Amino acid sequence: xxxxxxxxxxxxxxxxxxxxxxxxxxxxxxxxxxxxxxxxxxxxxxxxxxxxxxxxxxxxxxxxxxxxxxxxxxxxxxxxxxxxxxxxxxxxxxxxxxxxxxxxxxxxxxxxxxxxxxxxxxxxxxxxxxxxxxxxxxx
Length: 139
Ligand code: HEC
Ligand code: HEC
Description:
The chain is mainly α. The chain has a domain at about 50-55 and about 65-130: Flavocytochrome C3, Chain A (Flavocytochrome C3, Chain A, domain 2), CATH 1.10.1130.10. The chain is about 15% helix and about 0% strand. It has helices at about 1-15, 85-90, 95. It starts with a helix and ends in a 43-residue tail after the last helix. The structure holds heme C (2 copies). One heme C (HEC) binds near residues 72, 75 and 84.
Protein backbone atom coordinates (compact mmCIF):
# COMPACT_ATOMS: atom_id res chain seq x y z
CA UNK A 1 0.00 0.00 0.00
CA UNK A 2 2.81 2.36 0.98
CA UNK A 3 4.51 1.51 -2.31
CA UNK A 4 1.35 2.27 -4.29
CA UNK A 5 0.95 5.70 -2.64
CA UNK A 6 4.56 6.40 -3.39
CA UNK A 7 4.15 5.59 -7.10
CA UNK A 8 0.95 7.62 -7.28
CA UNK A 9 2.66 10.64 -5.71
CA UNK A 10 5.61 10.32 -8.08
CA UNK A 11 3.27 10.24 -11.09
CA UNK A 12 1.42 13.27 -9.75
CA UNK A 13 4.68 15.11 -9.22
CA UNK A 14 5.89 14.37 -12.75
CA UNK A 15 2.67 15.47 -14.38
CA UNK A 16 2.82 18.76 -12.46
CA UNK A 17 6.29 19.46 -13.93
CA UNK A 18 5.34 18.90 -17.58
CA UNK A 19 3.03 21.02 -19.69
CA UNK A 20 4.34 24.40 -18.53
CA UNK A 21 2.28 27.25 -19.92
CA UNK A 22 4.33 29.77 -22.01
CA UNK A 23 4.89 33.13 -20.33
CA UNK A 24 2.40 35.42 -21.98
CA UNK A 25 3.85 38.72 -20.70
CA UNK A 26 7.46 37.97 -21.82
CA UNK A 27 8.93 40.95 -23.70
CA UNK A 28 10.61 40.34 -27.07
CA UNK A 29 14.39 40.24 -26.81
CA UNK A 30 16.11 42.48 -29.37
CA UNK A 31 19.45 40.87 -30.07
CA UNK A 32 21.37 42.24 -33.06
CA UNK A 33 23.81 39.87 -34.73
CA UNK A 34 27.28 41.14 -35.70
CA UNK A 35 26.43 39.87 -39.20
CA UNK A 36 23.63 42.48 -39.44
CA UNK A 37 19.99 41.78 -40.16
CA UNK A 38 20.69 39.04 -42.72
CA UNK A 39 18.49 35.97 -42.38
CA UNK A 40 20.23 32.68 -41.86
CA UNK A 41 19.14 31.57 -45.34
CA UNK A 42 20.49 34.78 -47.04
CA UNK A 43 23.88 34.62 -48.69
CA UNK A 44 25.88 37.65 -47.60
CA UNK A 45 29.00 38.78 -49.51
CA UNK A 46 32.19 37.45 -47.96
CA UNK A 47 34.27 39.81 -45.83
CA UNK A 48 37.29 41.36 -47.50
CA UNK A 49 40.55 39.48 -47.09
CA UNK A 50 42.70 41.19 -44.46
CA UNK A 51 45.46 43.42 -45.83
CA UNK A 52 48.63 43.58 -43.79
CA UNK A 53 51.43 46.15 -43.98
CA UNK A 54 54.20 45.40 -46.43
CA UNK A 55 56.55 42.65 -45.27
CA UNK A 56 59.24 43.91 -42.95
CA UNK A 57 57.25 46.89 -41.62
CA UNK A 58 56.20 46.85 -38.01
CA UNK A 59 53.36 48.98 -36.62
CA UNK A 60 53.75 51.91 -34.27
CA UNK A 61 53.03 51.15 -30.62
CA UNK A 62 50.39 53.19 -28.83
CA UNK A 63 51.68 52.96 -25.29
CA UNK A 64 54.79 51.83 -23.43
CA UNK A 65 54.93 48.10 -22.67
CA UNK A 66 52.34 47.36 -25.37
CA UNK A 67 52.81 43.93 -26.90
CA UNK A 68 53.55 45.05 -30.50
CA UNK A 69 50.81 44.30 -33.04
CA UNK A 70 51.52 41.56 -35.55
CA UNK A 71 51.93 43.14 -39.03
CA UNK A 72 51.32 39.86 -40.90
CA UNK A 73 48.88 36.96 -41.13
CA UNK A 74 48.36 34.54 -38.28
CA UNK A 75 50.41 31.34 -38.01
CA UNK A 76 49.60 28.10 -36.21
CA UNK A 77 50.43 27.59 -32.58
CA UNK A 78 49.70 24.17 -31.12
CA UNK A 79 50.85 22.28 -28.06
CA UNK A 80 53.60 20.55 -30.09
CA UNK A 81 54.58 23.30 -32.54
CA UNK A 82 54.93 27.07 -32.39
CA UNK A 83 55.34 28.48 -35.93
CA UNK A 84 56.10 31.99 -34.68
CA UNK A 85 59.37 30.91 -33.19
CA UNK A 86 60.58 29.70 -36.63
CA UNK A 87 61.08 33.35 -37.54
CA UNK A 88 61.27 35.16 -34.20
CA UNK A 89 63.62 33.02 -32.11
CA UNK A 90 66.89 34.80 -31.21
CA UNK A 91 68.88 32.26 -33.32
CA UNK A 92 66.74 32.69 -36.44
CA UNK A 93 65.70 36.35 -36.19
CA UNK A 94 68.67 37.79 -38.05
CA UNK A 95 68.41 35.36 -40.95
CA UNK A 96 64.62 35.82 -41.19
CA UNK A 97 64.99 39.63 -40.80
CA UNK A 98 62.59 39.78 -37.87
CA UNK A 99 62.68 41.23 -34.37
CA UNK A 100 63.75 38.50 -31.95
CA UNK A 101 61.53 37.74 -28.97
CA UNK A 102 62.79 39.91 -26.09
CA UNK A 103 64.73 38.41 -23.18
CA UNK A 104 61.61 38.82 -21.03
CA UNK A 105 60.00 35.97 -23.05
CA UNK A 106 62.84 33.51 -22.44
CA UNK A 107 64.15 31.35 -19.61
CA UNK A 108 67.60 32.26 -18.26
CA UNK A 109 69.26 29.95 -20.83
CA UNK A 110 68.27 32.56 -23.42
CA UNK A 111 66.72 29.92 -25.68
CA UNK A 112 63.69 28.22 -24.12
CA UNK A 113 60.41 30.11 -24.31
CA UNK A 114 58.75 30.68 -20.95
CA UNK A 115 55.50 28.76 -20.67
CA UNK A 116 53.63 32.00 -20.06
CA UNK A 117 54.91 33.36 -23.40
CA UNK A 118 54.22 30.27 -25.49
CA UNK A 119 50.82 31.28 -26.86
CA UNK A 120 51.97 34.46 -28.62
CA UNK A 121 48.55 35.51 -29.88
CA UNK A 122 47.24 35.68 -26.33
CA UNK A 123 49.02 39.07 -26.23
CA UNK A 124 50.06 39.89 -29.82
CA UNK A 125 47.18 40.33 -32.25
CA UNK A 126 47.42 40.67 -36.02
CA UNK A 127 46.38 44.13 -37.25
CA UNK A 128 44.99 44.44 -40.77
CA UNK A 129 44.64 47.94 -42.24
CA UNK A 130 41.28 47.28 -43.92
CA UNK A 131 39.42 45.79 -40.97
CA UNK A 132 37.00 47.80 -38.90
CA UNK A 133 37.13 47.28 -35.16
CA UNK A 134 34.09 45.24 -34.09
CA UNK A 135 33.94 47.24 -30.90
CA UNK A 136 34.76 50.98 -31.01
CA UNK A 137 37.79 52.07 -29.07
CA UNK A 138 39.81 55.24 -28.70
CA UNK A 139 43.25 53.82 -29.55
C1 HEC B 1 57.67 33.60 -41.98
C2 HEC B 1 58.30 34.31 -40.88
C3 HEC B 1 57.40 34.77 -39.74
C4 HEC B 1 56.58 34.00 -38.95
C5 HEC B 1 56.30 32.49 -39.03
C6 HEC B 1 56.03 34.90 -37.96
N1 HEC B 1 56.51 36.18 -38.16
FE1 HEC B 1 56.14 37.79 -37.00
N2 HEC B 1 57.19 38.98 -38.27
C7 HEC B 1 57.86 38.54 -39.39
C8 HEC B 1 58.42 39.70 -40.10
C9 HEC B 1 59.24 39.65 -41.39
C10 HEC B 1 58.06 40.84 -39.33
C11 HEC B 1 58.39 42.31 -39.61
C12 HEC B 1 59.73 42.68 -39.05
C13 HEC B 1 59.68 42.88 -37.56
O1 HEC B 1 59.18 43.91 -37.13
O2 HEC B 1 60.08 41.95 -36.83
C14 HEC B 1 57.32 40.34 -38.18
C15 HEC B 1 56.82 41.16 -37.17
C16 HEC B 1 56.19 40.68 -36.04
C17 HEC B 1 55.85 41.49 -34.88
C18 HEC B 1 56.10 42.99 -34.74
C19 HEC B 1 57.39 43.25 -34.02
C20 HEC B 1 57.55 44.72 -33.69
O3 HEC B 1 58.51 45.04 -32.97
O4 HEC B 1 56.75 45.56 -34.11
C21 HEC B 1 55.25 40.68 -33.98
C22 HEC B 1 54.68 41.06 -32.61
C23 HEC B 1 55.21 39.36 -34.56
N3 HEC B 1 55.79 39.39 -35.82
C24 HEC B 1 54.63 38.27 -33.96
C25 HEC B 1 54.48 37.04 -34.55
C26 HEC B 1 53.66 35.99 -34.04
C27 HEC B 1 52.83 36.08 -32.77
C28 HEC B 1 53.78 34.93 -34.89
C29 HEC B 1 53.06 33.61 -34.82
C30 HEC B 1 51.59 33.68 -34.80
C31 HEC B 1 54.70 35.32 -35.94
N4 HEC B 1 55.07 36.62 -35.71
C32 HEC B 1 55.14 34.49 -36.98
C33 HEC B 1 58.00 37.23 -39.80
C34 HEC B 1 57.34 36.15 -39.24
C1 HEC C 1 51.96 37.42 -21.81
C2 HEC C 1 51.91 38.27 -22.97
C3 HEC C 1 52.87 37.94 -24.10
C4 HEC C 1 53.02 36.74 -24.76
C5 HEC C 1 52.28 35.43 -24.53
C6 HEC C 1 54.02 36.97 -25.78
N1 HEC C 1 54.44 38.28 -25.72
FE1 HEC C 1 55.78 39.15 -26.98
N2 HEC C 1 55.65 40.90 -25.93
C7 HEC C 1 54.81 41.14 -24.87
C8 HEC C 1 55.02 42.47 -24.37
C9 HEC C 1 54.28 43.10 -23.21
C10 HEC C 1 56.03 43.05 -25.17
C11 HEC C 1 56.62 44.44 -25.06
C12 HEC C 1 57.54 44.57 -23.88
C13 HEC C 1 58.77 43.76 -24.05
O1 HEC C 1 59.53 44.04 -24.99
O2 HEC C 1 59.01 42.85 -23.24
C14 HEC C 1 56.41 42.03 -26.15
C15 HEC C 1 57.37 42.20 -27.13
C16 HEC C 1 57.58 41.33 -28.20
C17 HEC C 1 58.40 41.62 -29.36
C18 HEC C 1 59.16 42.90 -29.65
C19 HEC C 1 60.53 42.84 -29.04
C20 HEC C 1 61.33 44.11 -29.30
O3 HEC C 1 62.54 44.06 -29.00
O4 HEC C 1 60.78 45.11 -29.77
C21 HEC C 1 58.35 40.51 -30.17
C22 HEC C 1 59.02 40.31 -31.51
C23 HEC C 1 57.50 39.53 -29.50
N3 HEC C 1 57.06 40.05 -28.30
C24 HEC C 1 57.20 38.29 -30.01
C25 HEC C 1 56.49 37.32 -29.32
C26 HEC C 1 56.34 35.94 -29.79
C27 HEC C 1 56.87 35.40 -31.11
C28 HEC C 1 55.60 35.28 -28.84
C29 HEC C 1 55.25 33.82 -28.81
C30 HEC C 1 56.37 32.88 -28.89
C31 HEC C 1 55.26 36.25 -27.78
N4 HEC C 1 55.84 37.46 -28.11
C32 HEC C 1 54.48 35.99 -26.66
C33 HEC C 1 53.90 40.24 -24.35
C34 HEC C 1 53.77 38.91 -24.73
